[in-house]
Protein: R2D2-PAb
Amino acid sequence: MSNHVKTPAMVLQELAIKKGFQSPHYEITHSVTGTHNNRFDYRVRVAGVEATGTGCSKQISKHDAAYNALKLLEEDGIYDPKEIPMREFKASIIQKQCELDAGAAIPSSVNFVAPLKDICAEKKLQDPVFKELSVVGPAHCIEFTYECAVGSVKTVATSTTKKMAKQLAANEMMEKLKDILPDLSLDAYKKEELQQRDTPTETNYFKILERYNKLFGKVISDKKVKIKDFASVFSKLMKKFEKTRQDFVEDLCEKTEESLVRFLNKMELQHDIIPIQEKSPIIVTLCINTDVSFTAMGVGPDFEEAKEDALQQAFIMLDCYIKE
Structure:
């Protein structure tokens, strides 16, 4: 079994052997059985630390206790996740698995895989790929672990059925993509809800997102670009459009919105200045639709001064990025 699918209990045992500690000692401290909502509380002692865990089965409870012990050992500098990687283990997964074990079957209307595929198609991402990583445990309490991969982004989920593990992995992926792609929060139901409420604050929020999406929706982003590679985005564009720093010097010196437009036109880019706080002090963002979103903030007593501040900040950054 490869390292990245090891459970917390397996990792804790391996760590104890590697460091020369006594094996982890588990003991059950509380249990409720014979109902649809079974509960087990475990305590584990190892390497001078003590941790507890809770779950709807003894196996999950022990994993939870081991996971919490590993976190304590990591804080003490004894456990390094890079040396002995651990399978992803989240409280949300435990809760969903407990609901399943308690008889809460997946409703036919709940399907995370289909909407994930729709999101990938809409955002021009690779189709999600699901892979079974492991099947562990006795016949009466088998755990299935599935991985969901969209390009280089991966999520992992565990459950007592293959179907639920796959669905949970898809759900985790959607949550992760929402963090990466902010406009995903503006889905159909939220858009409709905001329009129905139509309060001033929510209307402004809706308009801001509409403007942001209109600007960046025209960009087919390079999904392989990382934040750490941001400085190279403009140099790549300069190479693509056969430009040198000298082509931008005059615009950089003028530092006005008109010169910014000329600057961006040379690389077929656009910008927008969006107010995000309309009460004093006024706050605006200046966005440029590069692969990795370029944003500069501006603050001032009125919109014009806030815009001027954002422009100055933008030109300072652009001056650094436009290199020979």
